[in-house]
């Protein structure tokens, strides 16, 4: 609970807030400290990092255009993409692989040689159970032969970090620094954030930036607009699933289509309620009344964080 008169901090794990803190050229020390903790690239590589356009160009007419959260080029030309994804969505693994491939391809313009290629690395931070059944918080994926374990090349690397699987105390060295950053990104508790801010000058600077953004009306409006867009997208996604469920209920149960649709709408509303989506958005997406949604809410437990 925030004390009276204190501005509630924006969540650093929101992609738009994350980009404001780590993707701003004025905050180079903060980004450099995070990258040093996350990757096995020598620290002097970040002495000349440059933030570059986060729009990945289409390489063919009609090709897909990617938009990244934070995109960095190091001194010798390694390309690093930092992504944060709080909620499950279709084809996330494929999207991360696509972005990594695009960063590799972007290094060899027409007429240039393959000797110019440097590492294309994606750091993907997840706020949900990205790899079910795996208990460790960090994985590194490169091009290996799965039978022999032989590494073909480290030109492409995907490093996944799951906020829900961070271990307790006991780590040391670079991993200790990385876990400190991940706990800061995950935390929404002022007391923990202040404690983490004291761990290093760079983490302290990140918290100062976060406080300034939280007190800035424009930054808060951008965050709120992004959250509304995300909630709307969730509602559309689950709404489409519910339409299919309604048709299935109507056909499989041998009941009238209207009753099937009504049951499908109720199932959709329950799913959206469990995701914490506002009653107004659910009403707009499902066609149910606010009274019907409130009645469902009283019997729908929220999902855990």
Notable characteristics:
305 residues; alpha/beta; 2 domains; six-stranded mixed beta sheet; two-stranded antiparallel sheet; globular; disordered N terminus
Tell me briefly what this model is:
With 305 residues, the protein is α/β, with parallel strands linked by helices. 46% of the residues lie in helices and 14% in strands. The N terminus is likely disordered.
Structure description:
Helix content is 46%, strand content 14%. It has 305 residues and is α/β, with parallel strands linked by helices. The model is unreliable at 1-5, 54-68 and 253-260 (pLDDT under 50). It has a six-stranded mixed beta sheet with strand order 1-4-5-6-8-7. It has a two-stranded antiparallel ribbon with strand order 2-3. The chain has helices at residues 15-22, 28-38, 92-105, 173-186, 190-197, 201-214, 217-252, 257-274, 279-286, 290-297; strands at 50-51, 55-56, 66-67, 70-73, 79-85, 120-126, 138-144, 151-162. The chain folds into two domains: 15-215, no CATH class; 220-297, no CATH class. The two termini are 17 Å apart. The protein is globular. The chain has ten helices and eight strands. Helix 2 crosses helix 4.
């Amino acid at each position: 609970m925030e004390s009276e008169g204190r501005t509630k901090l924006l969540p650093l794990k929101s992609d738009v807030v994350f980009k404001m803190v780590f993707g701003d050229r004025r905050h180079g020390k903060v980004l450099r400290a995070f990258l040093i903790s996350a990757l096995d690239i020598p620290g002097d590589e970040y002495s000349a990092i440059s933030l570059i356009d986060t729009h990945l160009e289409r390489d063919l007419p009609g090709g897909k255009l990617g938009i990244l959260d934070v995109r960095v080029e190091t001194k010798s030309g390694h390309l690093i993409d930092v992504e944060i994804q709080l909620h499950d969505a279709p084809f996330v693994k494929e999207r991360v692989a696509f972005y990594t491939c695009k960063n590799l391809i972007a290094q060899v313009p027409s007429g240039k040689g393959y000797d110019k290629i440097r590492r294309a690395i994606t750091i993907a931070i997840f706020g949900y159970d990205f790899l079910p059944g795996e208990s460790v918080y960090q994985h590194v994926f490169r091009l290996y032969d799965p039978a022999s374990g032989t590494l073909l090349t480290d030109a492409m690397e995907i490093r996944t970090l799951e906020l829900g699987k961070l271990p307790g105390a006991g780590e040391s060295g670079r991993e200790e620094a990385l876990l400190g950053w991940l706990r800061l990104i995950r935390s929404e508790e002022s007391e923990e954030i202040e404690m983490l801010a004291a761990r290093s000058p760079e983490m302290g600077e990140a918290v100062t930036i976060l406080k300034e953004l939280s007190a800035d009306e424009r930054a808060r409006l951008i965050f709120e607009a992004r959250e509304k867009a995300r909630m709307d997208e969730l509602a559309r996604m689950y709404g489409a699933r519910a339409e299919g469920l309604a048709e299935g209920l109507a056909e499989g149960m041998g009941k009238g289509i209207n009753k099937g649709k009504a049951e499908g709408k109720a199932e959709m509303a329950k799913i959206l309620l469990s995701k914490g989506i506002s009653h107004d958005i659910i009403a707009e997406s499902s066609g149910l009344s606010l009274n019907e949604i409130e009645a469902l809410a009283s019997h729908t437990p929220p999902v855990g964080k």
